[in-house]
Design a protein that fits this description.
The complex is a heterodimer of chains A (181) and B (143). Chain A contains eight helices and no strands. Chain A is mainly α and 181 residues long. In chain A, helix 2 packs across helix 4. The longest helix of chain A has 24 residues. The N and C termini of chain A lie far apart (48 Å). About 4% of the residues of chain A have low confidence. In chain B, helix 4 packs across helix 5. About 20% of the residues of chain B have low confidence. The chains are: A mainly alpha (181), B mainly alpha (143). At the A-B interface, helix 2, helix 3, helix 5, helix 6 and helix 8 of A face helix 1, helix 3 and helix 4 of B.
Chain lengths: 181, 143
């Protein structure tokens, strides 16, 4: 458990951040920006778009923080908030600019597979719909369990299973097409 | 056992019992179509895992953008509040001028309504309030 989340400290920080305390806002940002940024980057496949999406998440988050009622853990609530904001942000951007998901746009990290593997991953994901893409990122890249995904998406586990099933079948179709080229 | 995409996917997600796994294995040996499907599903999931595995640190530009937009948001909110207060004050001041000749003009009823709580003694010789201004009283919540 990090210093941030122990002994109800998180609740205090959230409440201060909700009232515009910059130090508390920074503490929330430091705790969750890694998740938000990497999810946005994996989803968009584009650094610039991911930066815009991640900043949109935090700007909206600080506006809406006062609405967090503590029914679920803050982490789950924030993950759900991030997933919805990123999907909607990219939808809006696409409508405005008809952006395709870029290939080779993922960060050139040495351990993240070869450039070819990253290109292929981006290409496969680019052919999926937003929700299919997101659920596979949560499962394959974030390593979340079905019940964690259910919490984040606010749906039941059987619904997660059926969505993952459809997303995997769709991914396979795309893979067959790409492989055949 | 019949062909089953669902079983293939459940195996991929590690959700199949050892018995189910064995049964599926036997089926796959005799069914080329399912074998191909299973192999493609494993390969495509593997590509995502490898291609998306590594996380990186968020660039500091995100925080700067957030602060900039949040400050603009707060500044806008302060501006709207100030503008609303100024508008309210302007409304009250216009009421003061209109109330100089009570009974004359079509807004005299309105001005007397706004200032009905101000007693006769508080008005100066030319109709202005002595001492505190109307705005001071408004800000103290006395109006």
């Amino acid at each position: 458990m990090s210093k941030y989340t122990e002994d109800g400290l998180e609740r205090v920080i959230i409440s201060r951040a909700a009232s515009g305390d910059t130090g508390a806002m920074r503490a929330v940002y430091d705790e969750y920006s890694g998740f938000v940024w990497n999810l946005a980057l994996k989803f968009t496949g584009d650094e610039t778009l991911a930066e815009d999406a991640a900043s949109e998440v935090f700007v909206r988050l600080f506006k809406k923080l006062g609405k967090f009622r503590g029914r679920s853990s803050f982490r789950t609530w924030l993950y759900r908030f991030t997933v919805n904001t990123v999907i909607n942000f990219v939808k809006k951007q696409r409508r405005r600019n008809s952006l395709p998901l870029k290939e080779s746009a993922y960060l050139p990290e040495e351990d993240a597979g070869t450039l070819e593997e990253r290109d292929l991953a981006a290409r496969l994901l680019g052919e999926l719909g937003g929700e299919e893409r997101m659920i596979l990122i949560l499962r394959e890249a974030e390593g979340m369990s079905y019940s964690e995904i259910a919490g984040v998406l606010g749906i039941k586990v059987p619904a997660v299973k059926s969505r993952i099933y459809r997303a995997r079948m769709r991914l396979r179709e795309v893979y067959e097409t790409v492989e055949g080229i | 056992m019949r062909c089953s995409d669902e079983l293939i996917i459940r195996r991929l997600d590690g959700e199949l019992s050892p018995e189910g796994e064995e049964e599926l294995e036997i089926h796959l040996k005799g069914c080329a179509a399912c074998r191909k499907k299973a192999s493609d599903l494993v390969a495509s999931a593997g590509i995502l895992r490898k291609g998306l595995l590594k996380d990186s640190d968020p660039p500091e530009t995100i925080w700067r953008a957030v602060m900039e937009k949040t400050r603009v948001g707060y500044a806008r909110l302060r501006f709207y509040r100030a503008a609303a207060a100024a508008a309210a004050a302007a409304l009250i001041i216009s009421g003061v001028f209109l109330s100089r000749s009570p009974g004359e003009g079509y807004l005299s009823g309105f001005s007397s309504l706004v200032f009905e709580s101000v007693s006769e003694e508080e008005w100066g010789p030319d109709g202005a309030l002595e001492g505190d201004t109307v705005i001071d009283m408004f800000l103290r919540g006395e109006l």
